[in-house]
Write a structure and sequence with these properties.
With about 250 residues, the protein is α/β, with parallel strands linked by helices. Helices cover about 35% and strands about 25% of the residues. The N and C termini lie far apart (about 45 Å).
């Protein structure tokens, strides 16, 4: 069996919790650091479906990417995730921006998965800069991303020119379009970007590839499961079956 504390300490070796962005909330966010279990769920989000899965499987520890508690709690309703986790004695560890910026973390994994060779990491912006092996048209790169990640769909803009220099920022990384402009990048790949930032990108000839938040980060979960299973061979870590993208894509 493996304890919450042991999992926390191991994650801290490759994605130090102290490196999380100042706005973030990471670490052991619910439960008992001394709690132990021989079967543990790993998910991008601690949704109600994931909590239900843990209860159904009698699992008492969940590791998530997104913080189960992000903003200060002003109301604890009986159907809220923190309440349900506490009710069923489930401890939750969340590794968010510390895992995003870590070597072989979310940004690195996303970049390498779509053929971006990493040149420099900007940990203060939770982003990285890299280059493709060759120039591609915007549409060609969009199709390549879709195929490489097995996406249902994605949004992108077309500057009408070939691209090679890429900024990658998983999740809600649209603000990193300014970093992309500063570093002379041809494109930004992210999970969320607002309309006015797309306009900025268009004005600066930067192509935008918006994968969707879930789709830009979910590839880290099976890798994290593998890493945890290797470190704790007497415990079974498994990716939550119920952890899925709620966005539908109409072809």
């Amino acid at each position: 069996m493996t304890s919450v504390k042991s999992i926390y300490e191991y994650i801290n070796t490759f994605a130090p919790f102290e490196t999380a962005m100042s706005f973030d909330n990471v670490g052991i966010l619910i439960g008992d650091k001394n709690a132990k279990d021989d079967k543990i769920l790993v998910a991008l989000d601690a949704t109600k479906a994931v909590i239900d899965e843990a209860v159904r499987k009698n699992i008492k520890i969940i590791v998530t990417h997104h913080p189960v508690i992000f903003n200060p709690i002003k109301l604890l309703s009986s159907d809220s995730i923190p309440y349900l986790a506490a009710k069923y004695g489930i401890s939750i560890i969340s590794a968010h921006t510390n895992l995003d910026i870590a070597e072989n973390g979310v940004n690195d994994t996303l970049a390498l998965s779509i053929g971006v060779n990493i040149q420099k990491r900007f940990v203060e912006d939770c982003t990285l800069y890299g280059e493709l092996d060759r120039e591609m048209s915007c549409r060609e790169f969009a199709e390549s991303i879709k195929n490489s990640l097995g996406l249902k769909g994605l949004r992108f803009t077309d500057t009408g020119k070939n691209i090679r220099k890429i900024t990658v920022s998983c999740g809600a990384g649209g603000e990193c379009v300014f970093s992309a402009a500063k570093n002379g990048c041809d494109a930004i790949v992210t999970g969320e970007i607002k309309h006015h930032l797309i306009n900025f990108a268009n004005d600066n000839n930067i192509a935008v590839f918006d994968l969707g938040h879930f789709q830009s980060e979910d590839m880290i979960i099976p890798l994290l499961v593998k890493k945890l299973n290797e470190q704790f061979p007497d415990t079974e870590f498994e990716q939550a079956e119920s952890d899925s993208d709620s966005i539908l894509y109409l072809a």
